[in-house]
Model the fold of this input.
Amino acid sequence: MFFEINPSNGVAIFEQISRQVKYAVANGALRAGELVPSVRELASKLAVNPNTDARAYRDLQSEGFLEPIRGEGLRITKLATERSRKHRAKLLNDRIRLVVVEGIQ
Done:
């Protein structure tokens, strides 16, 4: 799994991680049942605080994208694919709406 974090783009790092997991699920790079990297492993790869990764994972769990597996870590839920596609469609609709409103103004 590959994450690209940009600390200067104005989006919180935990939110960037969360979005990238959702996008990876939506486009099939991550499939239901796959384990995501551990908090420490991801923090090491991204050179960020482990609490940042933990927050992103907590948010993803509360939204139903990840589920804990005792002794193994966190895995992608069966419902994550549909949820991530809906999330991506909502983001695109919101952005299109903003462009149209800006164009009208």
User: Anything to note?
Assistant: The first helix runs from residue 13 to 26. The mean pLDDT is 90.
